[in-house]
Structures are given as structure tokens and as C-alpha cells.
Description:
Layout: E1 23-26, E2 29-32, H1 39-50, H2 58-72, H3 76-86, H4 90-105, E3 125-130, E4 135-140
Antiparallel strand pairs: 1-2, 3-4
Amino acid sequence: MTKRSxxxxxxxxxxxxxxxxxxxxxxxxxxxxxxxxxxxxxSEYARLAQQGVTAESSEGAAILADVFSGLLxxxxxxxxxxxxxxxxxxxxxxxxxxxxxxxxAQRPTQRPSDSFDGPPPGEATSKVVSLSRGVVxxxxxxxxxxxxxxxxxxxxxxxVSYG
Length: 163
């Protein structure tokens, strides 16, 4: 069996893979996330949601605490105290998390491709296969017909039928 080796970060610049910092307001205080939503946190959150776990249960409260702790980093303790002091309901925390996840999902996760959106630059060609002569050739495509100008008629090859 082959042993495979991986590194945790493919983008060595930061843990957020170049994504903009996420932030949200709660009770007129702006909270800045030190990292973006973790795929592992998302998968755990989704697994618990599919099992019907609610934010009010111990498992639901634990995953919310884990996710917000990971997102807010050194600001988490202050956030937790703010939520306790202001009686922030679990549903509000779920809504914040859902919006952060939605925002993260709409951002590109990779640098856009350097390739062109249209056909490759240069002369367009077509591959012509002649079965009767056993020849394959590459020829430039004729320019697209322009409106109002009659195009010269080319001699069409005869069709061969075997039946």
C-alpha cells in the first residue's frame, strides 16, 4: 500500500487562503473573525443538523462554541461574555453562523484561471478526415459569412454510400 503525505495549507500566505476577513454586527458591535469558517466545523455542523440536533441541546451548543471560538480566535471570550450579558438566543447565533457560511460559500476558493473565456487566440482550424483517401489534414476555417454578401459556393465532395 502506498503511503501518501499532505500539508495542511496549500496557500502558505495565511490560513484563510487569501479570502477577505469576515465580520458581523451583534447588538451594534462589530465582531471581526480572525479566520474563516473551517470545512471540518461545517461538516460537523451539517452532520448534527441532519441528526436533528438543535442549538439548545448540549451537542448543538458545543458545536456553536467550537465554531465561534475558531472564527473569533482571541475575541471569543469577549464575544461569549457579551452573549451571556445580553442574553443572546441560540437561534441568533445559528443565524449569524448560517450567514457567515453562506458568505464564505459565495467566494471563490481558488485564484481564477488564466485561460481565456472564449476560443483560443490565433487562427481557427478544423480537422478534415478523408476516409476514401485515408488522409487527415488540418485546415484553416473559412471566415464567417458576412450579412448581405453572397459567399462563393465551394465544390462539395460526393457522398459515398455503402448500402
